[in-house]
Amino acid sequence: MLRYLRPLFGRLLLPLGRLLARLGVTPTMVTLTGALGVVASALVFYPRGELFTGSVAVTVFVLLDMLDGAVARASGSTTKWGAFLDSTLDRLSDAAILSGLVLWSFGGGENPALGYLTLFCLVSGFGVSYIKARAEGLGANCDVGIAERSERLVIVLVAVGLGGLGVPYILPAGLGVLALISGITIVQRLIETRNRLTSPRRTADDSGAV
């Protein structure tokens, strides 16, 4: 859903991307800094129960990571390798965020039920991303689903941040919503991929029929 706002964000970030490009900053530098910042923030703050501080730090580095595309466009250095690296590090960043929550839930948070819910969100998040990547690797467009990465990040960071401020029930509620929409998105993408890979037209094309 938030993907429809990406062109707007791209235009807003382009001037800053041009500035960074003139300063000699490369897209890879931005990508690595953003990803390492997210991973470090999540795995340092969350396990210690510093949920609000951790969410603020993670959000800062997530926003920084959004600049890599702007820098690439400004410097004319958009490459397939850059897109691959960005996508791969996004998966690792997402895993670090939820892993930090898992460590806190089973440790100082003393909430195993929340830990298991977070584990489900972690696994289902990988499922959402993998299904799309695998489908597109087979030539089937799978750009469907109600829970893309942007939506999942917003939900988890808002829920964890407000939970860290003491807002009651917001953290389990947010993770519950995240688990639900991730599960729905997995089903949506499985159905979409099945329809595209088994459609009569595609079957005929794959067999070489005219």
From TrEMBL:
PROSITE patterns: CDP_ALCOHOL_P_TRANSF (PS00379)
Needed co-factor(s): Mg(2+)
Transmembrane segments: 20-45, 51-71, 113-131, 152-169
Keyword Transmembrane listed: yes
Organism: Streptomonospora litoralis
GO cellular component: a single term: plasma membrane
Entry binding sites for Mg(2+) 2: D65, D86, D90
Chain sites annotated for binding Mg(2+) 1: D65, D68, D86
GO biological process: phospholipid biosynthetic process
Free-text remark on how the cofactor is bound: Contains a di-nuclear catalytic Mg(2+) center.
EC number(s) reported in the record: 2.7.8.-
Record-listed a CDP-1,2-diacyl-sn-glycerol binding positions: G69, R73, T79
Similarity comment: family membership: Belongs to the CDP-alcohol phosphatidyltransferase class-I family.
The protein's name: Phosphatidylinositol phosphate synthase
Self-association and partners: Homodimer.
GO molecular function: magnesium ion binding; phosphotransferase activity, for other substituted phosphate groups
Reaction(s) catalysed by this chain's protein: a CDP-1,2-diacyl-sn-glycerol + 1D-myo-inositol 3-phosphate = a 1,2-diacyl-sn-glycero-3-phospho-(1D-myo-inositol-3-phosphate) + CMP + H(+); 1,2-di-(9Z-octadecenoyl)-sn-glycero-3-cytidine-5'-diphosphate + 1D-myo-inositol 3-phosphate = 1,2-di-(9Z-octadecenoyl)-sn-glycero-3-phospho-(1D-myo-inositol-3-phosphate) + CMP + H(+)
Topological type in the membrane: Multi-pass membrane protein
Keyword Nucleotide-binding carried by entry: no
Protein function: Catalyzes the conjugation of the 1'-hydroxyl group of D-myo-inositol-3-phosphate (also named L-myo-inositol-1-phosphate) with a lipid tail of cytidine diphosphate diacylglycerol (CDP-DAG), forming phosphatidylinositol phosphate (PIP) and CMP. PIP is a precursor of phosphatidylinositol (PI) which is an essential lipid required for cell wall formation.
Subcellular location: Cell membrane
